[in-house]
Specification:
Among the domains are: 91 residues, no CATH class; 83 residues, OB fold (Dihydrolipoamide Acetyltransferase, E2P) (Beta Barrel), CATH 2.40.50.140; 158 residues, 3-Layer(aba) Sandwich (Rossmann fold), CATH 3.40.50. It has a 7-stranded parallel β-sheet, with helices on both faces. Strands 16-21-20-17-19-18 form a 6-stranded parallel β-sheet, sandwiched between helices. Strands 2-3-4-6-5 form a 5-stranded mixed beta barrel. The protein is α/β, with parallel strands linked by helices. It is 38% helix and 18% strand. Bound molecules: adenosine-5'-diphosphate (ADP) and magnesium ion. Magnesium ion binds next to α10.
Amino acid sequence: MTGPGLADIEVTALKGVGVQLAEKLAKLHIVSLQDLLFHLPLRYMDRTKVSPIGALQPNQNVVVQGVIKAADVVFGRRRSLMCRLQDGSGTLTLRFYHFSANQKAKLQPGAHIRCYGETRRGASGLEIYHPEYEFYDEQAPANLASTLTPVYPITEGISQARLRGLIEQLLPQLGQHSLPELLPNTEQNWGSLEQALRYLHQPPADAPLDQLLDMRHPYQQRLAFEELLAHQLSLLKLRQRVQAEGAIGLPENPLSLEKFLAGLAFAPTGAQQRVIGEIRTDLSRPVPMLRLVQGDVGSGKTLVAAAAALQAIANGYQAAIMAPTEILAEQHLQNFRAWFEPLGISVGWLSGKQKASERKAALAATASGEHQLIVGTHALFQDEVAFADLALAIIDEQHRFGVHQRLALRGKSRGLRPHQLVMTATPIPRTLAMSAYADLDVSIIDELPPGRTPVTTVVVPNERRSQVIERVRAACAEGRQAYWVCTLIEESEALEAQAAEVTATELATALGELQVGLVHGRLKPAEKEAVMAAFKAGQIQVLVATTVIEVGVDVPNASLMIIENPERLGLAQLHQLRGRVGRGSTASHCVLLYGQPLSQYGRARLSAMRETSDGFAIAEKDLELRGPGEVLGTRQTGEMQFKLADLQRDANLINRIRSCALDIAKHHPDLVDPIIARWLGQAQEYAHV
Ligand code: ADP
Ligand code: MG
């Protein structure tokens, strides 16, 4: 190994790569030869052997060759060109919905062609739609591929063939450039990096295709390991960078906490006490706290947040708490006002929907330090928000915020970092949390406050809607209250609001003796507040709502929840919604009122909801059924895009990756940047936030 490293050579060093192609490659994040080398196949095709047509099954990727027996344009629902291909063992139809006059002229009976494509069951038996094909000379067919054919991620203007060509040009040059092994000695049993890369770009004809397609080949695992390691290292680096900046140490002040707790109607649970203790220790140190609190819905995270905020405020600093939705933020505002104002603490409010004059006043009071606790939505992130002395930033419902956003709320206080407390209502399976939140310490509230009765969940088809409405009537006749939640497929607040209005009218008519209220995201804050207040006070018995009530809303007397079309929601979201009931001492019920027909997958999810009420178990199930992207939320997912690793499939590697990352950070710090650069390239920029 000699010469400059592959990371230092630009792709333009390859033959045939000019400025234009280089620009297109850059869209695939390929700038250096190393980037190209690490641009790994998504799948493979076996073009090394020809299959006899007579032995084919549907849904196989195959090479077939033979002679065209008939070629006709047929006019079915769509016009298509159909060619019958025969090879002596059987016949097959090639079907083209798009074809040129030239193609039609050449695909004539008697022509010999070799085709690549996927078989499917069609109107005429086995068919291949739009195969790739080439004509061949019956006497001397051209050679077949000698390796499995890789399929790469591509972008407009770059074909598979083009990428394959570039890789073919690059691989023989590998020996001339240094491609350092970056794994520490303890991980050398993964085998040589160069070997793995060569193999994955050009797997031999007898390579285990199924294993490769499953991404479980040892070479793929080796690279996935390194890729996950790179992510882990970048988050650890981020953590170090943040912690190096220092924070304000906030000595514990037992008096203020005791006074606050004494004013509450209940005592904290053991789990709450433990987590409060962990946070208080963090806060007392002059190093920014970076802590994630996980707790199932209803486990009492707000109280933990309050104890943390109090510690900052008791030391003369500000704290901020941010929530992802207006309704949840408003609920926090009410809670904190009720808890803190009697202690003489000034609580401020910042939201995007605020009147300009109110907002101006709130901004001023935040900047002057008059407000000691500031509650808000994303509006807290904006540049114009300046804090006098922010020592603690609390972010509720973390799964909706990504790393970027989390870090944007740093509003430096006296040149130091505020402490950060992140709370998630959606439990995250451990392996996933270890990857996505590697920069955070984790506390878990694993106990619910006493006196909760588990919610009984039933799954009912919409045909029995009128029975369900009678059930609402009966519950309300007993002095209970009910939620009726409307969901929509489209992420449209307007359509969702409309659907909820229709349902509210329907229920108001059917349940003439009851008060039916309606909340959705399109109402003005004051209107929403009024409806919520009336529901809380019991003046409204049935609250029709969109999924805006998903998080945080707390009305203990509500013991019945109907969720319409629950099959449209993820498990975590259903669990959140269901967590709105079962807060009082009466037995609560949740009715999942589904639309027919229900897919097998939808059925599996609804049964999971019926069978368990443990948020962690539900999160595991969600991960299994929908994958990490949905569990973490889209923002977070955007920051967790992998070339070939998969947080769920590779979960078995996580423990080892975690300890390897800590080992590297401690004993081989010089490896950190090269590993991050190799795998994350430009994406590592978030480490610079
Ligand atoms: P979440 O963890 O979902 O944010 P909340 O903080 O909203 O939960 O708490 C849910 C409900 O439980 C609230 O009504 C809260 O006042 C109540 N609560 C919290 N802690 C306790 C406790 N230790 N004992 C009794 N009730 C509690
Ligand atoms: Mg909460």
